[in-house]
Amino acid sequence: MSKILVFGAGSIGVYLGTKLYAAGHEVTLYGRRKLQSLRDPITINHKLYPLPPRIYQLQGSAYDVILVTTKLYDAQAAAKLIRQHYWHPNLVAFIQNGLVNHQFYADISDYPGFLTVTVFNAYHLQANQISVMESQKGLQVENTEVGQQLVSIFNAAEIRCTVTTEVTQTRCRKLIANAALNALSAIEKKNIGEVMADPHLKQIVDRLILESWQVLSTEHQLPPVAVIQEEIYHLATQVKFHYSSMYQDLISGRRTEIDFLNGLIIELGHKKGIPTPTHCQIYQRICEVESVDHAYSTVALC
Asked: Which of 58, 89, 143, 185 has CB atoms 3.0–4.6 Å from 244's, for a disulfide?
């Protein structure tokens, strides 16, 4: 069994850590606000699990595996802290939500055991309960030796995870889905199923998908936009009762990942000369209600 640190344990981090702990691994959860309010045991989809030990300050212990589940805007700082405190973990996995290459993690991407994981499930932690809505894709990781090791660890703990040889394409497709659904769920205060059931909102979803596809397909080999659209429709049915993480961030007063989703599409579109008017509208609406400053350059592009 492995000694595992879950770094930045929010909804998905607590879920992963708790399942791995139940499978017999030595797990420690590191985080702040959400962790302090949790009680032992915790409920995952109506089943009780013992809560792993928690820490609120980093300690110099040695770990075999580090799972980083921070928001993307904290990921680079997390990489620096891991470099500072933990020199030789066998595996460092960043659970990410957008199209981010290894250069983004420059402080740690030279680790032999570094890899990124793309998440297609939906998670919500509230009042000591975690709701998980699983999709067919579950978690996907690059098909490397360390990727296969992580799949083995996760699957043994009943966490659905598979390898993929199309890492960049997988991230692109997830980015298109997130940029199409997350912000709309937050703005309209609707779950994913309600967004897709509204004819007007569904038209906006379709425009967001098309704009994202037009931007990303110039550089990455993607299937036709109709295929991407059907994939997102199918994914939406699997997580139809889920309120997006961006909605959860807004109602909790936390910063969202809009800069790494719709904001990224806007910036890439600007560089390629491809207009993204629908993304700009969505981006500006989130900026109006979010209580943090965003990059002026992105706002100016709209």
From this structure: 185
